[in-house]
Design goal:
alpha/beta, Rossmann fold, 2 domains, globular
């Protein structure tokens, strides 16, 4: 194809690894479909990456797959996610507009903008320069519906909470059987952002603005499997522009991308753990990882560790250097001695490869969406211990609808950790969860294959939205 005639997609993710990497997967897919790619990351994200990996740059994957830094004027540390969202919108609207104008003067000129829904600045910028714009929702469809419900929860007087006691007095168990496609929800299952007494909470206001942006967008992409979230996706379709479900994206990438793929995480991956897994029996290892950002207390970390020690199974446990705020995690000598023959503790690992390893039997997770999708691709059942945001929604759906896992009580205790792990690994309930995990793996593979729901949705997105073919 003539370079000047190539479609050119500009992608803008929110500056967090869990948001950057799904857009990176989408960018790689579009690149294989003939798109010129400009992948934009903010200075804030770049500085975090440099600090963690001692790298000077993010190398381009190909001459027609370029990375561009966007000035954002954000400090390295911010008090909360709401402030980061607000400041990103405020500081990046003008700079992203300027960047798009500069790109428009080059060849091939951009033909579309695909922005993370969190980056509310992108729609304003794209419209100012006259480019079609699509919103990419990096979380689950059920998480999207949770955000969609924020305004009605406020209108009904359910939130904000009257005072702090409402987080402990049973009020969070208020049933919300009116949420479309999710009749089994309670207030505690919608989103932890709602656990606030502040009527002007910045995160809630930003989430509402995201939803308004999505309603004005040309289309919405969700990294999900339609068969997994059919009821929710169909319900969302009555409120929003065309929705394209093209996940799990890990199943949609062509094989030749694997050697060049960019996994922009803030931690060095310990690939020796794959050799360790090679020496373990099939479906025998418990894998524990609570994501790249979630934090917990030192006491909770100890309870999880001793639960693994008492469960009786081999385990691979990711303990990030910053998993406990303000404290360094030092594992007890007694714990290390007791588990030295069957436990491996690492600061980070190549999770997608780990979850596809035949020795994996169970995944203990925070229920972040990327992690849940990678577990589905690997056919691995889950124990969920949700920590923040829509992780609680994902967990509720997994337990009540999808059937491929169980929930660990918020008040984590070592005895319950050990008990739940044993039930999932060898118990009768666990047997059914494992069967459902393999069922969803098969459905995800079918969806990504020619004629499958995700493959067809991707084709429609490219032809009718990004290329605007009749």
């Amino acid at each position: 194809m003539d370079t000047q005639m190539k479609p050119h997609a500009v992608l803008l993710p929110f500056p967090a690894a869990g948001h950057v990497n799904p857009l990176m997967q989408l960018a790689e897919i579009l690149h294989t479909k003939g798109f010129h790619i400009t992948f934009v990351y903010t200075d804030n994200f770049y500085r975090q990456l440099v600090k963690s990996k001692s790298t000077d740059s993010i190398p381009s994957l190909a001459p027609d797959f370029q990375f561009v830094r966007l000035p954002d004027n954000l400090p390295d540390t911010l008090p909360d996610i709401g402030t980061k969202c607000t400041l990103t919108h405020k500081n990046c609207t003008e700079t992203f507009t300027t960047l798009l104008k500069q790109l428009m003067e080059k060849s091939p000129a951009p033909t579309c903008v695909i922005s993370d829904a969190v980056m509310t600045c992108a729609m304003h910028a794209a419209r100012e320069v006259g480019l079609p714009e699509v919103q990419f929702w990096t979380a689950s469809a059920c998480g999207f519906m949770g955000h969609h419900s924020f305004e009605e929860l406020i209108q009904r007087g359910i939130v904000p909470l009257k005072d702090e006691s409402y987080t402990k007095n049973g009020y969070l168990d208020t049933p919300l059987d009116w949420i479309p496609g999710m009749k089994h929800m309670r207030l505690r299952d919608v989103n932890t952002f709602l656990y606030t007494t502040n009527p002007n909470d910045t995160m809630i206001n930003h989430c509402i603005e995201q939803m308004k942006n999505c309603q004005r967008s040309g289309a919405i992409i969700i990294n999900t499997l339609y068969e997994l979230e059919k009821d929710v996706v169909d319900a969302l379709a009555t409120y929003y522009p065309p929705i394209y479900t093209i996940g799990p994206l890990a199943n949609m990438t062509d094989g030749h991308l694997k050697d060049n793929t960019q996994n922009l995480t803030f931690f060095e991956e310990n690939k020796e753990c794959l050799n360790w897994l090679d020496n373990k029996a099939k479906s025998s290892v418990v894998y524990v990882n609570f994501g790249s950002h979630a934090s917990m207390t030192l006491e909770q970390t100890k309870e999880i560790g001793w639960g693994l020690a008492k469960c009786g199974f081999d385990f691979l446990w990711v303990v990030r250097p910053n998993i406990v705020k303000g404290e360094k995690v030092v594992l007890d000598e007694e714990f290390l001695e007791e588990t030295k023959e069957r436990g491996l503790v690492v600061p980070w690992c190549p999770q997608e490869m780990v979850l596809k390893h035949p020795s994996l039997g169970l995944f203990v997770t925070h229920a972040g969406w990327n992690s849940l999708l990678e577990a589905i691709v690997g056919g691995v059942p889950l124990i969920c211990w949700p920590i923040v945001a829509e992780q609680v929604t994902n967990c509720r759906q997994l337990c009540k609808v999808w059937g491929n896992g169980m929930e660990l009580d918020k008040d984590v205790k070592r005895e319950k950790v050990a008990e739940l792990v044993r039930e999932m690994m060898v118990g009768e309930s666990g047997k059914e969860k494992r069967r459902m995990a393999l069922t969803w793996k098969r459905k995800a593979e079918e969806a990504a294959s020619a004629g499958g729901s995700s493959s067809l949705s991707l084709d429609r997105l490219i032809n009718y939205v990004l290329l605007k073919n009749d």
